[in-house]
Amino acid sequence: MHVRALLDAPVPAEALFAWVGDLARYPSWLDIVRSADPLPVAGTVDDLPAWDVVLQARVGPFRRSKALRMVRSGVEEDRWARFERREADGRHHARWSLEAHLEPEGDGTRLVMDLRYDGALWSPPLEYLLHHQIERGKPRLASLAGGRP
Fold first, then answer.
1. How would you classify the pairing of strands 80-85 and 96-105?
2. What is the value of pTM for the model shown?
3. Which of 8, 10, 26, 56 is 20 to 30 Å from the Cα of 131, by its Cα?
4. 88 within 8 A of 45, measured Cβ to Cβ
């Protein structure tokens, strides 16, 4: 699965990056991210910023949740960040990745986010729900990045 989302926000890139470059802030604007708790970096195998992330979605009477350990595997402050699933249990897991790219656009910033997942958990109804959640989160993200709750 590959989902791409675009947002043109009337805010500087650094203001928007503060909300997309740190997974701990995602629950504030994206409902599908139930929690994203930062993990200690010191002593980890990869010495990268990491988060315990819980995704949760409801489709009709059914609720699905997924726990992931995500690391920020690449970053260029205020321009780009990449997050990847890296579990610490030594087992093979489905790939999850998220990239956020920011570019100046007129008086604001264009955000392009790409989410990729290659596991079997997802289904067409959950993909539809993800698109819906992203669309609902866009105005909230723009508002938060603009300093408005």
1. antiparallel
2. 0.90
3. 10
4. yes
